[in-house]
């Protein structure tokens, strides 16, 4: 492998962005190379410069950026290339797979046309030939019945199939280098496993070099040959994948690996009294979103039953569209319950009015998924945390609540001075901690957390989860923890309910469900989860194929 | 943000400091024109040599259609008014009409848009249909109808100004309504509004504290763009004879109307000066509005190139 010719050679690359706050130095003179038939993974947290580095390969930097140094893609230096020459290079020598397959395809053209478009942009071929090649390539990436489906539109495909089509588009011109920017981040774990298999197959079949950008250590362990770790625009460490996971040299790499949550059946036991009346009781719960006029609505949740007892953490896991967030929102009274029964803090939620619910709101806290949008950008953090206190008349004014807010901030390990800061001045992790402080302001009996860590970097996720466990033990609130990440559930939950297409597939003690899953779906879900260990991941891959 | 100097946080100053190159030039030109307009309007009594409805002074009657001279630098109109004085006083009328009409449509439009977007349901549907219906009328026609209904043919200063302002208000309400409603609908689905609902805040508290304050960000831009449209509408109304009587206040559109026959007769000064006043003020306000619009959008804002400072250092 080491003597294969270089597909990509980056020398002393330096990228600076002009912003309102002055110049931002995003990449500091890095050196990097990718050989033929090699999969190089660049890992790092958000803001580490990994995507910027990858984008320079195709000259896809925005106008505000200035790049210096040399980026040689199959013998051509890209940095100083004219737009016309760059256009020739894109697709033919290097192609890109984007993160979000939903937006990377144009919704008003058939997928076959979009693939043929790329071919016709580079070669003078007839429409019929381009179409024939589009069908061929769709078959290669595993779209069933490509002759018929070539004329279908993007919305007629599932998320995983769309990503396959995006990959087909990138492969159409047989590029030597494929840049995959977080290719599986927007996908569910089971689909992610399939796409990773596809990428590996492409490398084996076509000998394409792949530059994989990701923040997911499991994906790295599954796919990569060599790994480059980036931190704040610098390369921290580059090593073959086995070496990096077994014996990371840099301190930062060690911390990063340690922060990745692992599924090792923590078995958090619940010591509460099983006889006490539950805080939440769902019985044959059904939630249907209203349809258009005269049509039946979409059934998001059906026949779901579960209890949450005081002081217990119930983990609700499932893939996107499984109805897990819908249940969380229904408990908070943000979505209407249309069938069955849902009792929250002694209030029947079916047909409840806001007026009946309002007095009970103080016993309920909610932590939202996206820390960027869960704070009013015009209120200070202190004002946002004091909001529940003021609304429920515990304190009369902001000044009155300052001492309590400082106390809450301290509980989530933020300095009291953060009261006077605005949300945009805080990092994602800090904001999510402030969000936790707001949810806990009234010491609620029930906390609902809807994917609270999925928008955070792993190392930040780790501290937030630890804090969460701590607070849960200290305040003893009951909690519904919604997530798609099995490893996170394993860390926190006493009991787990696995959702699939709006129904509970399996529920029980965390150790039982994750340790010895009975249902086939749960087994598949667990087998698809990539683990941050190359050797173990290879073994798991075999196991998953046999399932 | 908090440690920025006070000056940089003032609305227009902040944008001015942010701008570079052509955008800065446009903004500067717009600000200068607007500044002159404001000064002329505020100090009209000091600047204008005569009153707006003055036909004679101690030396006797001005006489109609006098060419520019020492006593009347911009000449006199067909009715014998001094053109310079009419143009200067006209700025005052224009300013009052702009302020009254824009402020009224701002308050009514924002309130309706906020309620409509937050409450939704049948109220929202009716208001949207009504506003769409108003869009279907040519705005000048609507303003004429409104002027007739409101003033009923009166021509007092207050009545005339209010009639013009109200008719412009009616035309502009749908614009503010639309913008605020769209923003409200977007913001209502944001997590922080849901968070306020979960906390148990009352509907009014959510609407004012969480939605309204975030929905008004693009209003200054519509404000400036509408102000220029307001001037054109007053001028149009005046030109068509539905504005303010010359004895009540000076008004550029009315003067242009009276100057129509002068143009063919070669008496250029009666039409050129009020016409230029309209063009300049509209241009100035539009420049400010468009520049603010571009500066508020990070994708349209031009910046100094990254690293340019470094290159200069190397050269020197």
Notes on the structure:
- The complex is a heterodimer of chains A (547) and B (316).
- Chain A has 547 residues and is of the alpha/beta class.
- Chain A has a domain at 280-528: P-loop containing nucleotide triphosphate hydrolases (Rossmann fold).
- Chain A is 37% helix and 24% strand.
- A 6-stranded mixed beta sheet of chain A has the order 6-7-8-3-9-10, sandwiched between helices. Chain A has a 6-stranded mixed beta sheet with strand order 16-17-18-13-19-20, sandwiched between helices.
- In chain A, helix 17 links the parallel strand 17 and strand 18.
- In chain A, helix 7 (159-171) runs parallel beside helix 8 (189-206) and helix 14 packs parallel to helix 16 (428-440).
- Chain A is globular.
- With 316 residues, chain B is mainly alpha-helical.
- Chain B has a single domain (6-315), classed as MetI-like (MetI-like fold), CATH 1.10.3720.
- In chain B, strands 1-2 form a two-stranded antiparallel sheet.
- The longest helix of chain B is centred in the first third of the chain and has 37 residues, at 83-119.
- The model of chain B is unreliable at 308-316 (pLDDT under 50).
- Classes of the chains: A alpha/beta (547), B mainly alpha (316).
- The interface between A and B is medium-sized, with 40 and 28 residues.
């Amino acid at each position: 492998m080491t003597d294969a010719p270089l597909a990509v050679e980056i020398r002393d690359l330096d990228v600076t962005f002009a912003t309102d706050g002055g110049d931002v130095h995003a990449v500091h003179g890095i050196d990097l190379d990718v050989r033929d038939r090699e999969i190089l993974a660049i890992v790092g947290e958000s803001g580490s410069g990994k995507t910027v580095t990858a984008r320079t390969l195709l000259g896809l930097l925005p106008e505000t950026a200035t790049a210096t140094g040399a980026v040689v893609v199959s013998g051509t230096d890209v940095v100083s290339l004219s737009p016309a020459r760059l256009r020739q290079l894109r697709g033919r020598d290097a192609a890109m797979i984007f993160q979000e397959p939903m937006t990377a395809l144009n919704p008003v053209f058939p997928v076959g046309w979009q693939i043929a478009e790329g071919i016709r942009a580079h070669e003078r071929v007839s429409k019929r030939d381009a179409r024939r090649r589009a069908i061929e390539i769709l078959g290669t990436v595993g779209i069933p019945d490509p002759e018929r489906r070539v004329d279908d539109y993007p919305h007629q495909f599932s998320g995983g199939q769309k990503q396959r089509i995006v990959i087909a588009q990138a492969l159409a011109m047989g590029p030597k280098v494929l840049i995959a920017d977080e290719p599986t981040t927007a996908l569910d774990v089971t689909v992610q496993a399939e796409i990773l298999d596809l990428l590996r197959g492409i490398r084996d079949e076509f000998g394409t070099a792949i530059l994989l950008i990701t923040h997911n250590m499991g994906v790295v362990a599954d796919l990569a040959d060599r790994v480059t770790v980036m931190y704040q625009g610098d390369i921290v460490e580059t090593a073959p994948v086995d070496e990096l996971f077994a014996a990371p040299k840099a301190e930062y790499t060690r911390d990063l690996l340690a922060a990745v949550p692992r599924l090792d059946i923590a078995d958090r036991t619940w010591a509460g009294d099983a006889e006490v009346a539950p805080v939440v009781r769902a019985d044959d719960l059904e939630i249907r979103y209203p349809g258009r006029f005269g049509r039946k609505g979409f059934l998001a949740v059906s026949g779901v039953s579960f209890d949450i007892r005081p002081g217990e953490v119930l983990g609700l896991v499932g893939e996107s569209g499984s109805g897990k967030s819908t249940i969380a929102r229904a408990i908070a009274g943000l979505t209407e319950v249309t069938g069955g029964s849902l009792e929250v803090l002694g209030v029947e939620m079916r047909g409840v009015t806001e007026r009946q619910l309002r007095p009970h709101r103080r016993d309920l806290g909610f932590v939202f998924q996206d820390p960027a949008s869960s704070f009013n950008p015009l209120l200070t953090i202190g004002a946002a945390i004091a909001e529940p206190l003021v609304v429920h008349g515990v304190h009369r004014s902001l000044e009155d609540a300052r001492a309590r807010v400082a106390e809450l901030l301290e509980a989530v390990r933020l300095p009291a001075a953060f009261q006077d800061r605005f949300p945009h001045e805080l990092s994602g992790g800090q904001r999510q901690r402030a969000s936790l402080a707001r949810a806990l302001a009234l010491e609620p009996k029930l906390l609902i957390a809807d994917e609270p860590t999925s928008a955070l970097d792993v190392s930040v996720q780790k501290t937030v989860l630890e804090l969460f466990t701590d607070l849960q033990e200290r305040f003893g609130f009951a909690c519904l923890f919604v997530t798609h990440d099995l490893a996170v559930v394993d860390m926190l939950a006493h009991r787990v309910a696995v959702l699939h297409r709006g129904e509970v597939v399996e529920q029980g003690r965390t150790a039982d469900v994750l340790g010895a899953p009975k249902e086939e779906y749960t087994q598949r879900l667990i087998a698809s989860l990539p683990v941050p260990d190359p050797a173990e991941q290879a073994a798991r891959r075999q196991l998953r194929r046999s399932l | 943000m908090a440690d920025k100097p006070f000056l940089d946080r003032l609305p227009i100053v902040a944008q001015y400091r942010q701008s570079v190159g052509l955008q800065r030039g446009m903004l500067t030109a717009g600000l200068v024109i607007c500044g002159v307009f404001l000064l002329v309007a505020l100090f009209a009594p000091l600047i204008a040599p005569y009153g707006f409805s003055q036909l004679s002074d101690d030396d006797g009657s001005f006489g109609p259609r006098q060419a520019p001279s020492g006593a009347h630098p911009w000449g006199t109109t067909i009715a014998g008014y001094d053109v310079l004085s009419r143009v200067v006083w006209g700025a005052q009328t224009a300013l009052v009409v702009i302020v009254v009409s824009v402020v009224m449509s701002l308050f009514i439009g924002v309130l309706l848009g906020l309620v409509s977007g937050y409450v939704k349901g049948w109220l929202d549907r009716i208001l949207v249909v009504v506003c769409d219906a108003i869009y279907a009328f040519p705005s000048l026609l609507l303003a004429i109808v409104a002027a007739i209904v409101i003033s009923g043919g009166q021509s007092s200063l207050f009545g005339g100004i209010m009639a013009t302002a109200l008719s412009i208000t009616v035309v502009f309400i749908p614009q503010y309504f639309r913008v605020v409603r769209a923003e409200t609908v977007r913001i209502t689905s944001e997590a922080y509004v849901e968070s306020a609902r979960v906390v148990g805040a009352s509907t009014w508290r959510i609407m004012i504290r969480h939605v309204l304050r975030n929905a008004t960000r693009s209003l200054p831009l519509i404000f400036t763009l509408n102000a220029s449209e307001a001037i054109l509408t007053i001028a149009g109304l005046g030109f068509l004879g539905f504005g303010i009587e010359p004895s009540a206040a000076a008004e550029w559109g009315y003067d242009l109307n009276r100057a129509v026959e002068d143009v063919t007769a070669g008496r250029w000064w009666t039409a050129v000066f009020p016409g230029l006043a309209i063009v300049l003020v509209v241009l100035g306000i539009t420049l400010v509005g468009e520049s603010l619009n571009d500066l508020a959008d990070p994708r349209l804002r031009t910046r100094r190139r990254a690293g340019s400072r470094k290159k200069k250092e190397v050269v020197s």
